[in-house]
Amino acid sequence: MQRTYIKDLKDFIGETISISGWVDVRRDQGKMIFLDFRDMTGKVQGVILPNYTDTIEVGKTLRNEFAVKINGKVNKRPERNIKEGVLNGDIELEIQEIEVLASSAPLPFDISLSGYNLELTTELDNRALVLRQPKVQAIFKIEETVIDSFRDFMKQNNFFEFQAPSMVPATAEGGAEVFQIDYFGKKAYLSQSPQLYKQIVMSAFERCFSVNKVFRAEPSSTTRHLTEIVSLDAEMAFIDSWLDVRDLAENTVKHILKQVEVRNAEHLKLLEVELPVMIEKTPTLSLREVQQKIFDKFDRDVRGEKDTNAQDEREICEIIKEETGSDFVFIYGYPTRKKPFYIYPNPDEPEYNEGMDLICRGVEWLSGGRRINNYDQLQKHVELWNMDPSKVKMFLEAFKYGVPPEGGFAFGAERITMQLLGLKNIREACMFPRDMNRIDERLTDEGY
Ligand code: AMO
β-pairing, 91-102 with 42-48? Predict the structure, then answer.
C-alpha cells in the first residue's frame, strides 16, 4: 500500500491506509495499546484493539523511537475524546498491522523534554537523538526560512549569488580571531568573512551576495559566539551614501521577519515566541548619541568609549523601545581606527567612519556600511592597519579600475535565529555548534 503522510490522514476517514514513522509514545491501557506515531509531517494517535491478537503481540515489543510501518483504518474520534486545535485531534488510527522497520535502543532520557527543558550540555551531547524533537526541529525550520528568505530577497533585488572561498591568504576582519592552517607548508587561514571577495565580485557584477560558512577563532565562551557560522553577506555598487546600505539592511530584515511570520506560524506557536517589532523607520543614532542617551537615562558614563559593550547594547535597546516601540536600532559612526581597514571614514570627520551595526533586543544582529572605493585611500589603509599588501593584491587590484561608491552588510544566521526566538544561547540555534569547548564531542568539562 502506498504511504500516506500523517498530516493528510484527515482526508481518509473510513479508509484503510499505510503510514511510516516512529513510535513517539506507547501507553498500555487494559487490553488495548495506544501508540502515538510521528513522521516528518506531524503526529497521530493509534490504538490496537484486543481483537487484533497478533498485532497486540507486536505492539507489546514496541518502544519509543522504533521505526515502523502501520496499516490501519482512519476513524473519527468519539466527540468526548476530540482534542481541539491539535493536528489529528479529531481522528484516530485503528491499527491493523505493524511492521517493525528498525528497533531502537532504550532512550537515555525523556527526549520529549528537549527544546528548553534539558540542560544544554545534555542536548548537545545527544544531538542526534534530540534533533528528533518537534520543538528542536522548529528552531531549525525557522533558521531555514531565515536563510531562504535572505536569498529570495537578494534575488528579487537583482543581487548575484556567488561562492566565496573558505581558505584565504589574509584575514579580512583583522584581530587574533582567526584559525591558521598549514597550506602546503605556507601560512593560510580559514576565512573570517567573504568581505574582500564580495567587494571584488561587486566591482564586476554590481550587486552580489553569498551564503557562506565563516570561521572565527573566538577565544572565549559566550552565549552569542560560535567558531563556525553561516554568514549572510550582501554588497552593492552605486550607492549615494551609507544610508542606502542601512535601508537595504532594514528591508532585508523586514522581509525575513515577514517570511518567518507567514511560513513558520506553526513553529512560532509551538515555541511560544513573539517576533521582535520593526517599525516603519528604524531609529538610527551615532555612537556618540547612543552614549549620551545612556548617560542621560542611566547615569552611566561611557562617552568617549571606542565601541559599545553588551551592557550598552542592552540599555540602548531598552531606551529605544520605550521611546519608539522599536526593538531595533541602527548605530553608526564608530572610531575609524577601531574597525576594519575597508570601512569608509566620514569625510567631514575622518576619525569616525560610516560603518553601522543593527542591534535588536540587546544584541548585535548585523554589521556593514559604506566602503572605501578609492584605490589610493585603500592602499593607505592597508599600510596603516599593518597589513601585507601582497596578500590582498587581488582585492586592491579591483579598485584600480573604477569602482563606484559602494557598501554592504553581513549577519550570522545563527545569531539572527537566536534573537528572533529569544533563545538564551546561540548554540540552540546551531545544529552542530563549534566553540572552544566543543567540536561535536566535548573538549573540556565546561558547561554553557
Ligand atoms: P562582523 O564581524 O560584525 O562583520 O560580523 C557580521 C555578523 O556576523 C555575526 N557574527 C557571529 N555570530 C556568531 N558567532 C560569532 N563568532 C560571530 N561573529 C560575527 C553577527 C555579526 O553581526 N565583514 C563584516 C560585515 C560587513 O561589513 O559586510 C563582518 O564580518 O551577526
Answer: parallel
Give the residue whose CA is nearest to atom 11 of ligand 1. 412
Host H or E run for residue 411: strand 406-412
For the chain, domain boundaries: 6-102, 127-442
Closest CA to 407 of 343, 335, 341: 343
Is 226 labelled a binding residue? yes
**Atom 27 of ligand 1, nearest CA residue:** 368
CATH of domain 6-102: 2.40.50.140
Between residues 77 and 446, which one has the greater pLDDT? 77
Residue found by looking up cell 557584477 in the block: 205
Asked if 60 and 8 count as a contact pair (C-beta separation under 8 A), the reply is: no
What letter represents residue 125's amino acid? Answer: D
- Which among 208, 227, 207, 205 has a CA at the least distance from the CA of 218? 227
Pocket of ligand 1 (CB under 6 A): 173, 193, 195, 216, 218, 225-226, 229, 231, 233, 364-368, 408-412, 414-415, 426
The residue nearest atom 30 of ligand 1, judged by CA position, is: 193
Please write the tens of the pLDDT for every residue from 391-438. Answer: 999 999 999 999 999 999 999 999 999 999 999 999 999 999 999 999
Give 242-282 as a 3 state SS string.
Answer: HHHHHHHHHHHHHHHHHHHHHHCHHHHHHHCCCCCCCCCCC
Given pLDDT bands bounded at 50, 70 and 90, which one contains residue 448?
Answer: confident
Global pTM reads 0.95
Residue 217, annotated ligand binder? yes
Pairing assessment for the beta strands 67-76 and 16-29 based on DSSP bridges: antiparallel
CA of 411 to the centre of ligand 1 (A): 5
Distance from chain centroid for Cα 213: 12
Pairing of strands 67-76, 91-102: antiparallel
Q: Does domain 127-442 have CATH number 2.60.40.1120?
A: no
Confidence band of 85 (pLDDT split at 50, 70, 90):
confident
Q: Output the nine-digit C-alpha cell for 311.
A: 551592557
β-partners of residue 235 are 208, 408
